[in-house]
């Protein structure tokens, strides 16, 4: 859907939003293509470098905002992800910024919940699990980074929603899938590369 040039622009915008928010200064203006004016879901992830430990990840699974606005808002949100201390200025040289542009979520319809195991594609799909008011989302890169299979991916997404690991087997649980295109800095403020996900076995 998006070119590598657009992916690089998305990461540059996210990095600038992170820098501006952390320093408390105005955001520098960007000239964006028409594709960035379309509403789209997006997540911005901040990882420590070179260890790649998660430092913050916030986003919008649904296309609520034009992509350009969603990138900025998600980047600012990732700086103060409630799971972590607020990102400090001295950390900016030691983090990389990653942007995931999402397709709209699609309900996975199966005859039996166990059929989800043959439907979820690790390395391709991200998942959202919903039961009542509870919601949990994991991006496609998460199971690849952790070496999970489809069953572990479903269980971990349930736990992200605050549910039991096997809640995906319950008839009132809804599971949605989405895909994403991912670009990341290779090093802090460095070249931007497209991430290609390759599933691997758990060590």
Topology:
Elements: H1 4-23, E1 41-48, E2 54-60, H2 67-79, E3 95-102, E4 106-107, E5 126-131, E6 134-138, H3 141-146, H4 150-160, E7 174-178, E8 180-185, E9 192-195
Antiparallel strand pairs: 1-2, 1-3, 3-8, 4-7, 5-6, 5-7, 8-9
Helix pairs in contact: 1-2
Give short descriptive properties of this protein:
globular, Dna Ligase, domain 1, 25% helix, 4-stranded antiparallel beta sheet, 203 residues, alpha+beta
Describe this structure in words.
The protein is of the alpha+beta class. The protein folds into two domains: 4-103 and 180-195, 2-Layer Sandwich (Glycoprotein, Type 4 Pilin); 106-178, Hypothetical protein ph0010, domain 2 (Dna Ligase, domain 1), CATH 3.30.1490.150. The chain has helices spanning 4-23, 67-79, 141-146, 150-160; strands at residues 41-48, 54-60, 95-102, 106-107, 126-131, 134-138, 174-178, 180-185, 192-195. The protein has a five-stranded antiparallel sheet, with helices on one face. The protein has a four-stranded antiparallel sheet with strand order 4-7-5-6. Strand 5 and strand 6 (134-138) form a beta hairpin. The longest helix is centred in the N-terminal third of the chain and has 20 residues, at 4-23. It starts with a helix and ends in an 8-residue tail after the last strand. The model has no long low-confidence stretch (mean pLDDT 95).
């Amino acid at each position: 859907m998006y070119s590598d040039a657009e992916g690089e622009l998305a990461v540059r915008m996210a990095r600038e939003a992170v820098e501006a928010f952390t320093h408390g200064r105005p955001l520098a203006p960007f000239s964006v293509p028409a594709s960035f004016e379309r509403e789209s879901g997006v997540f911005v992830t901040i990882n420590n470098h070179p260890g790649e430990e998660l430092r913050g990840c916030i986003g919008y699974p649904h296309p609520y905002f034009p992509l350009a606005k969603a990138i900025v808002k998600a980047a600012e949100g990732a700086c103060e992800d409630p799971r972590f201390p607020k990102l400090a200025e001295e950390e900016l040289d030691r983090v990389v910024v990653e942007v995931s542009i999402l397709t709209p979520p699609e309900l996975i319809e199966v005859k039996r919940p166990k059929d989800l195991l043959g439907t979820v594609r690790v390395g391709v799909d991200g998942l959202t699990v919903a039961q009542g008011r509870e919601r949990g989302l994991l991006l496609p890169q998460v199971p690849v980074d952790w070496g999970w299979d489809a069953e572990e991916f479903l269980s971990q997404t349930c736990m992200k929603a605050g549910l039991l690991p096997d809640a995906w087997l319950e008839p009132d649980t809804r599971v949605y899938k989405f895909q994403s295109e991912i670009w990341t800095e290779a090093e802090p403020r460095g070249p931007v590369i497209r991430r290609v996900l390759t599933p691997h076995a758990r060590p």
